[in-house]
# Entry
Amino acid sequence: MAVRDISHVELYTRDKVAAVHFLVSGMGFTQVADSVAVDRSSVLLRQGDVQIVVTSGWVTGKWLSEHGDGVADIAVTCDDVSETAQAALAAGATVTRSPQGNPVVSGWGGVSHTLLPASNAGPAVPPAGHRWTSSPKAPTAPVGRVRRLDHIAIRLEASGLADYAALCGEVFGLSPLPVARLVPGGRDVTTVAVGSASERVVFALTAADAHHGAGALPESSDPERVTGVHRLAFLADDIPVRGTRVQGRGHAGAQFPAGRTQRRARVRHR
# Structure
């Protein structure tokens, strides 16, 4: 039932045009296909082995009202989809079905995991569940400096951190990685990292205690208290030293640090 790879991440947004522009212009992704259905409109972006689906439409309305713009689904490929879905049910997770019949495991913080067979996956294979129309002059092979996802950071309520880590181990077959305790900006933040044997699936699970006393922010205006995916970190080849920052809810900075041949470019969605 081991998870092998991340097929794609799907971003729900109120402004698809702005989100696509940011990822193409600021991060170097290429628009390779479009999909239009009755309840949604999606764009498929690709760079290296990374596929991002940007979706808007009325099907996203409830999710957006509860969580705001962000990553709604992390689709993973499995050795045995049926066995992984059964393990999720046994672990107490909620398992539904996508319109195409793929199992969808509900996580915490509004994040779900669509289960796809590893045998039908690949960096040049468009994600299942959409009727894709190729964009003009779309590349047929992976391009760009980004090679793959390095890790996905997911922020959780403190009470759900252990449960999500257990789900990752019992259901997805992810193993614990070194744990770090950080204290940024007056917070005590616990990070639990879990990863696959293939090293192509790594989740950094965090739970931050809110500020108390003078200077505390209300939960609705404090981005450190918003649960869900808050960072995608990419493993990239050598890239120019530059930074891109887009202001506004749902899009924050992409940083390109200097000093290493392989760099992690981060794009924050919250």
